[in-house]
Every structure is written in structure tokens, then in C-alpha cells.
Specification:
Low-confidence stretches: none
Oligomer: single chain
Number of helices: 6
Helix content: over 70%
Structural class: mainly alpha
Number of strands: 4
Strand content: under 5%
Order of helices and strands: HHHHEHEEEH
Strand order of the largest sheet: 1-3
Largest sheet: 2 strands, antiparallel
CATH class of the largest domain: Mainly Alpha
Length: 171
């Protein structure tokens, strides 16, 4: 990976390299001191960091852009959640949802199978929310429709999901 360094960074690099060379000559020519060692290590460290300095400066000044991007992503997540919540609510009519809730509660009584109820039962069976042998074998009317079919785990999960979405949209 090649980087295009500006003239100012080359000038800084050359100055620091010159200071490093002078300190090394001082180290060799006279008795070394701990402060001289610290200075040499500090300047060597600076030489190592100069290539990354532009990136550090850019990150510092781009903090506002970063926060803006995070806020933008947060808004998109909120929009997506609102859309998926709406999709859950719109995926089933209110009357069919009420039918599923009554069946899950085990208290769908008394009942009379109309064309609408029959279509709802077939649909709930087709999407896997209820288990029933044959819908046509269910008596036309009776005391408790829940005796003839069972709400599946998927059906129960849908009820809970829709209930939570409705509560969130009210609150």
C-alpha cells in the first residue's frame, strides 16, 4: 500500500530524523544518561507514528460525520422496525386474529361455521397456525370449536408477536 505524504510531513520526518541522529551521536561520543535513552526512544516512536498522523487527525475531525452516520443508521433501523411491525399487523385480518386468539384460549363457544369462519379455518390451517384433521368433519354448530382443533406453537407465537406489536404501537 502506497501513501502520498505531503511536503509538511516529509519536513517533520526529516527534522525528527536529524534530532534522532544528533542524540545517537551524543550517546556514542560521551557517557550515556537515562534521559538520553528516553529521548532516543521517544523520537523513534514519533518517527513510527508520523505515517499514521493524517489518519488520527482525520478521525478526530470526522467525529461529527461519524455521529451523523450512526444517527442515520439508527433512523433506518427504526424505520425498518416500524415497517416490520406494520407487516405483522397487516398479515392477518382482525376477525381472523380474533378467531385464532379464541381458539388458543380454548373458549370458542358457542359457534356456527359460516362461510367466513370456514375460510378463516382453512387459511389458519394452511399457514400452520392450527392443526385439524378435516375441517369439513367439524360439526356445523356446537358448544366449543376449540375441541376439534389445536393451535400450533407457530400460532401461539404469532399471537404473542402481534399482541406485543399492538401494545408498542399504542404506547
Amino acid at each position: 500500500m502506497t501513501q502520498d505524504y505531503s511536503a509538511k510531513w516529509w519536513a517533520v520526518f526529516i527534522c525528527i530524523a536529524f534530532i534522532e541522529a544528533v542524540l545517537l551521536i551524543l550517546l556514542i561520543s560521551r557517557q550515556p544518561t537515562p534521559l538520553l535513552f528516553v529521548a532516543i526512544i521517544a523520537i523513534a516512536f514519533l518517527l513510527f507514528l508520523i505515517p499514521q498522523l493524517d489518519e488520527v487527525i482525520a478521525l478526530t475531525f470526522d467525529r461529527g460525520k461519524l455521529e451523523s452516520k450512526i444517527n442515520s443508521i439508527g433512523k433506518k433501523v427504526s424505520t425498518t422496525k416500524a415497517r416490520s411491525d406494520k407487516l405483522v399487523l397487516l398479515s392477518m385480518s382482525k376477525s381472523m386474529y380474533d378467531t385464532l386468539k379464541k381458539l388458543a384460549a380454548g373458549s370458542f363457544s358457542p359457534y356456527q361455521i359460516s362461510d367466513v369462519l370456514e375460510r378463516e379455518l382453512y387459511h389458519l390451517k394452511d399457514i400452520g397456525y392450527i392443526e385439524v384433521g378435516r375441517i369439513r368433519d367439524i360439526p356445523y354448530e356446537g358448544n366449543n370449536l376449540s375441541e376439534y382443533l389445536k393451535v400450533t406453537d407457530s400460532g401461539k407465537q404469532f399471537i404473542e408477536l402481534r399482541k406485543s406489536v399492538e401494545e408498542e404501537s399504542k404506547g
